Amino acid sequence: MNSPAPPPSATIDFDTLASQVSALERRGSPEYEEARSRAIWNKRLDNVRAPDAVVRCASAREVAAAIRFARENGLKVSLRGSGHSYHAAALCDGGLLLDLGALDFVEIDVENRRARVGPGARGGDLVDALAEQGLAFPIGHCASVAMGGFLLSGGIGWNYGTWGPACRNLAAIELVTAEGEVLHVSRDEHADLFWAARGAGCSFFAAVTAYELELHPLPEAAWLWTATFTADSAPALADWLTAATAASHPGSEIMCLVGPDFKSGEPSVTIRAVGIGESEEQARDRVSSFHSPPTDAELMGEPEEKGLAFTELHKLSHMPDGKRVAADHAWCDATMGEMLLAVQHLAAVPKRSSTVNLISPGGNAEIPFMPDAAHTALSAGGGASAGIYAMWDEAEDDALHCGWVRDVDAALAPLRSARYVGEADLTAGPERLRECFSPEAFSRLEELRRRYDPERLFQSHGA
């Protein structure tokens, strides 16, 4: 069923909704641009879309009221957690943008190792709150990312080689449907919605207002080994990188960053191995296969290693605000060495802060990391992944960096098995969303959308 054509926004009585929510800024009001800008992290996309109103919600009841209002007035709905989206997924053209940033609560049940968190809760805040209780969760690599988008996309976070993706560590979810009904969903209640909410990403067809997390004991220690080499050293590094990754512990995380060196700007390959264990000695031993890099690879400075607390790991990935950004993603079943060789020639193209991040859990990288589509919508993956991130300041450099992201994606295409919905550029083409799921999972998501959101109330990029 097609949704009716939305009436001109000038005829809609937004005052009715304003009385039911924490705040509402209509397009044209003095505070509108400030409210809208909170939803835009990527400054390259400052002016791509503009909703009719930005609605700030502080409870599931307020979210339900906003959704019912949108439905009654023929308005589309989009959702914002922290706004940390490479492609401004929260912004809709017309309609209502529901800002869920105020739903940032963190409630911890230590005895049962559970936590209830809002979609606006930031990963860094959650890490610290859990650590105080001796607990942990596979949190995202960047502290500023909110739990809403991270969990909805599946959540590939720290220690996922041991704990699995974050969505596998969910016990229940509170959400609001396109009908404006608040539901508690789990493996036993509305199981189809629970399946979809774990991995559908910004194509999900409901508004999540709370997550119940299954927690883990806090790991005692982590160990970081890192070294930077010239980009020309890639051929000398490739086989060693593959072997060292395979020899490291499955709970370790191996990252190979290809691009300009952050300090010098010279084309480089930085390898970072992180071991997680019950002692500093154990954590170091889990990445000991990296301690002797090949002698014919040219180092840019001496390798460094140090012990870290688990709570410090998310500080390793800094994503600055106020940048112009282009990004994409590829899951690959190839080895880390094969991926490195595929992109090494592009290390010199972008300016600083732009890198290809090749990531793999330790162990045998040739064994694909394939989530079970029967249990989660997160249904496509690979043994390793490539996050392609370009960040710059000047509009005159847009073509250079956007072109570089496309070139890296093309170089990885022969190795690509799928994409990650949380980072893939869903605006690049109609096929992109399909590439984020198995065929069976994609068909099931489409069928569930027709059942739960037949009028397509919720904006869905790429669909």
Compact summary:
The chain has about 475 residues and is of the alpha+beta class.
Layout of helices and strands, plus pairs?
Blueprint: H1 14-18, E1 23-26, H2 32-37, E2 53-56, H3 60-72, E3 77-80, E4 96-99, E5 106-109, E6 114-117, H4 123-131, E7 135-136, H5 147-152, H6 160-163, E8 170-176, E9 182-186, H7 191-197, E10 207-214, E11 216-217, E12 221-230, H8 234-247, E13 253-260, E14 267-277, H9 280-285, E15 304-308, E16 324-332, H10 336-343, E17 355-361, E18 384-392, H11 398-412, E19 416-418, H12 439-452
Parallel strand pairs: 2-4, 3-4
Antiparallel strand pairs: 1-2, 5-6, 6-10, 7-11, 8-9, 8-10, 12-14, 12-15, 13-14, 13-17, 16-18, 16-19, 17-18
Helix pairs in contact: 8-10
Structural write-up:
- The chain has 463 residues and is α+β, with helices and mostly antiparallel strands.
- The chain has three domains: 10-99, Uridine Diphospho-n-acetylenolpyruvylglucosamine Reductase, domain 2 (2-Layer Sandwich), CATH 3.30.43.10; 106-218, 2-Layer Sandwich (Uridine Diphospho-n-acetylenolpyruvylglucosamine Reductase, domain 3), CATH 3.30.465.10; 221-434, Vanillyl-alcohol Oxidase, Chain A, domain 3 (3-Layer(aba) Sandwich).
- Helix content is 23%, strand content 24%.
- The chain has twelve helices and 19 strands.
- The strands form four sheets. Strands 15-12-14-13-17-18-16-19 form an eight-stranded antiparallel sheet. It has a five-stranded antiparallel sheet with strand order 5-6-10-8-9. The chain has a four-stranded mixed sheet with strand order 1-2-4-3.
- Strand 5 and strand 6 (114-117) form a beta hairpin.
- Helix 8 runs antiparallel to helix 10 (336-343).
- The longest helix is centred in the C-terminal third of the chain and has 15 residues, at 398-412.
- The protein is globular, with a radius of gyration of 22 Å.
